[in-house]
Specification:
The protein has 183 residues and is α+β, with helices and mostly antiparallel strands. It has helices at residues 5-13, 18-30, 32-51, 60-85, 92-112, 119-124; strands spanning 127-130, 134-139, 142-147, 151-159, 162-169, 175-181.
């Protein structure tokens, strides 16, 4: 297995740790291909060192001033192009609309969800019932009974929240109709 090129470049520059340098030198003695690559890296480093030699008589102040002027010119040209081309998206309306949207969705979901009625409220609703003794109205624990005397004919009709009872009094022969509603 051949070492990575980064390791060969570090070996050529003498920048590897002593242990890795020892292992890589051992591999280079046996592998001519890796040895050739390491030699190329050494030649490249020597060439770069030769190129770093600066010509004599260079005025660094003039070069620095020209570089600053070029940088300023590039920045000014970039500002000119950016002002016309790119417009930033304003997030403020979206940030204000998001909480409102969350409230609307939560309200809508709560309208859809209808909890089961509380059992305690059923005991308080009025209940009307026709019995043999008369008409009974029950609400909570209280009972109101509308009694009728002994009658020959009794007709009863119950519908939803109303009861209608009709009877004929045996002694007088009068007809009595009781119609009881509950709200």
């Amino acid at each position: 297995m051949h070492p990575a090129e980064t390791d060969l470049a570090l070996y050529a520059g003498g920048e590897l740790s002593w242990w890795r340098r020892l292992l890589l030198a051992r591999h280079l003695r046996r592998c001519p291909l890796c040895r050739q690559r390491a030699d190329e890296f050494k030649q490249c480093r020597q060439w770069l060192h030769q190129q770093q030699m600066l010509p004599a008589g260079v005025n660094w102040d003039i070069l620095a001033a020209e570089m600053r002027a070029n940088i300023r010119l590039g920045l000014a040209a970039g500002e000119c192009v950016r002002a016309h081309g790119e417009q930033r998206w304003n997030w403020r309306p979206a940030a204000l609309a998001l909480p409102v949207l969350i409230l609307v969705v939560a309200g809508w979901l709560l309208q859809l969800w209808r909890p089961a009625p509380w059992r305690g409220s059923l005991a308080r609703d009025p209940v009307i019932e026709a019995t043999a003794a008369g008409v009974e109205l029950r609400r909570g624990g209280a009972v109101l009974t509308l009694l009728h005397p002994q009658a020959a004919e009794v007709g009863r009709l119950a519908s939803g929240d109303a009861v209608r009872v009709r009877y004929v009094d045996a002694e007088t022969g009068l007809v009595t109709i009781s119609h009881v509603y509950a709200h």
